[in-house]
């Protein structure tokens, strides 16, 4: 989608144009933290129609903007030079890896400052350092040092962000923000088109495979969500009666209450054996917008044969062993979805089991990870968005199966801890009708849990479920050690600290059910400290840690290897 660019006054202050343009492209909130080099930019942000949200720490601003971008279609971070910009870098790297369109605006030393090479505070090596670092995690970057080119540079970067669904970097020297820039000569960006012959050939080969297939299946990938193409894929699935599975990164890209939905596929990390068997026994796997990653494919346990698959993404169109160049994914998908071929026969009956209701006699049982996700599933509906952090929060979430459509957001490929609490702020600001249900480990909570104070200040109403298993449970499964121990916090006291919300300690299945019901009925911000047995994990985490240990040579096999390599010494 090209960004709009017309009808601006021909001369505008740079800062005014920047935020007016971003607003026109759909940005309504900015996440960040000011600093002296960014204050002139912040002054324009304050005057603009975009609401500035100050977070407690820049990494959180990055996670919030990433989640906001996933829901809204474009996100914005505003920070100061290096101390702020480099603080937010990891979150932006995650947005790059998982295709989330975030614009990073950073304040910087002035044009005048750069004439000599003084040692200015926040400078690392050269004035170019931060921009060069950002070149690794963005699809376009610019330093706005010239009035004549500034507007065109802003448009170029934002258009790249929208086109590639990946972050871009815009550096605003502090003495440039107020300068008048020309908005007249903004060159048009080239419009990419599919080569019609190659498109026709790729579609014809795919349709031939679909016609011949007895048991095709669609793996609905995350790009369907990013490029808003899920309705097209759904249309295709419905017309051809082809069932669909998602992966961990794309979970909920298609509605999980759809009759054609099978569940999450990820090799041995699938949501259940039925899905795994169905996908692996299929004679044609149509991977639409799918990222094939070690995580989403269950750490190399997935069994998908290239000879019976189509992989169509914005980066490649592969039909079995053929690769088609110059074919745009939306064109390919649209053409396959519109083709008139006879539908398949699919009986959905035994798939997609709804979560089992809680029985009276189990209410006093101690809570387990599996039950957390089962009970949570019973309370979710189309107004909920589950935001999961790393650890069993994300692996166990494969087991979430709500009876009605619920959204799901997680850094399921880049896997950076600390994502979920700040991300929930981005989700709720992007869509006020979505209530975040944040599933976060005690370790991850200790990284960015301070953002609860931001949520309280903004009057938001997320429900935080802290999976408290006394430390880094995931790491403990792979390799036990004192490095997995963290301080035991009184998580139920956090509401007192930040001055808002209601918290509770939850130990049994019945208590969780009651707490979620009360959260639903009364609204408001909730913090639930879910006290779990230390060794209790989800079946998905068990699978993945077993595979990691096997591949990395850790655990028993690793100890034997260590002994062989260093006879007489105990493994560390
Ligand atoms: C920023 C970051 N640092 C380190 C890791 C490595 N790591 C993955 S899971 C994990 C432990 C998570 O602990 P917790 O949040 O308590 O979840 P649990 O594993 O106990 O479910 C660590 C340290 C990571 N993924 N991200
Ligand atoms: Mg933990």
Itemize the secondary structure elements and their pairings.
Blueprint: E1 11-13, H1 14-24, E2 29-32, H2 39-47, E3 51-54, H3 58-72, E4 75-79, H4 89-97, E5 102-108, H5 129-135, E6 140-143, H6 147-164, E7 168-173, E8 180-182, H7 196-212, E9 216-220, H8 222-226, H9 230-240, E10 244-246, E11 261-264, H10 273-281, E12 284-288, E13 309-312, E14 317-319, E15 322-324, H11 329-338, H12 369-379, E16 384-388, H13 392-395, E17 407-409, H14 420-430, E18 435-441, H15 442-448, H16 452-457, E19 463-468, H17 473-478, H18 494-498, E20 502-506, H19 509-522, E21 526-531, H20 539-552, H21 555-565
Helix pairs in contact: 1-6, 3-4, 3-14, 7-11, 9-11, 12-19
Bound molecules: thiamine diphosphate and magnesium ion.
The site of magnesium ion has 8 residues, from helix 15.
What does this structure look like?
This protein is of the alpha/beta class. The protein contains 21 helices and 21 strands. The longest helix has 18 residues, at 147-164. The radius of gyration is 25 Å and the shape is globular. Bound molecules: thiamine diphosphate and magnesium ion. Thiamine diphosphate is lined by residues 390-393, 415-418, 441-444, 467, 469, 472-475.
Based on the model shown, name its key terms.
alpha/beta, seven-stranded mixed β-sheet, six-stranded parallel β-sheet, 21 helices, 17% strand, disordered C terminus, binds magnesium ion
